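QA checklist item 7 of 12: single-chain prediction sanity check.
[x] sequence parsed
[x] length recorded as 366
[x] structure emitted
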Amino acid sequence: MTLTTPRAKAPTDAPTAHLPKAGVARSSALFLVLLIAGAVLAVVAAGRGQLDIPAGEVLGSILHRIGIDAGTMPTHPQGDAALWQVRFPRVAMAMVVGAALAAAGALMQGVFGNPLAEPAVVGVSVGAAFAAAIVIVYQLSFAGEWTIALFAFVGGLVTTLLVYFMSRADGRTEVVTLVLTGIAINAVCSAGLAFMLFIGDTQAREEIVFWQLGSLNGTRWQYVWVAAPIAAVGLLGAVILSRKLDILSLGDRAARHVGVDVERTRLTAIVLVALLTAAGVAFAGIIAFVGLVVPHVVRMIVGPGHRVLVPASALMGAVLLLGADLVARTAMDTADLPIGMITSLVGGPFFFWLLRRTRRTAGGWS
């Protein structure tokens, strides 16, 4: 008697293998809307601040920079300098960090097979925060102005790899073990962070707390040129890995049956998550809910296929964080609000609504 296994056809049954025409149209429409929204919001965000610059003058400055003699240059004497030395670097960093965090969240949810997963699960955020706090408290400066960012980036990577290798047993890792190990490492790093707050002076404490809440204040082009390539590598790797993530959603056994190296795929995905998240956290601090909420929204619109989900999440994350940073800069005339506070204020209620909606329509997540 010969047994047949329907899962052997998993590669052709993966969610993105054959998108229906309606799904293709919906995905294309989403990408178009996000691209337009991102471009419009970037122009608006660049013009808003203590020195308001009209959108037409912002566009004129951009056109002149690329060699097109059209449009109106900023009329204020410091307008053009303010745009290219302060505003545009911050706009670019907001988009880079938002895209990185959202793509990392989509990867995490695909690897763990759990919609509640986010980059913080593997300790990358709190590991980066702990490393940055060490630099702040002990006033380390061997790398100059890059010391905090360098320590935060390395701290996030090391913590993530530590979680992965500590959760391995007999050459394999299980999702539950990864989650529990991540919780343990998070607890240890959080204790270390609390100790840094305890022994630090008032200035160090204020800097650590503000860094934990996330901020893009003080961003310069030098930071963007470091964060952007790292995020681009992570995004490219995530897109390449998307087909295997679709197959992995069928379960480890089914994925192995069709030839997917589950352990290598999982390790690659976790390294990519660490790269993406550390690139964002190192220069912007901890920004909550972007990696958790954005993939949910995109999945509701275009479905679970990662070939669309990952790049669409990156685009939506860029737009979301750009909008959040605009609010953070302009909500109060005399203060630059922490951007992590803005994303939490929006993401918390939205995620609660999402939980209620899922429970009502599908009986919750199993």
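[x] summary fact logged: The domain at 40-362 is CATH 1.10.3470.10 (ABC transporter involved in vitamin B12 uptake, BtuC).
[ ] second reviewer sign-off
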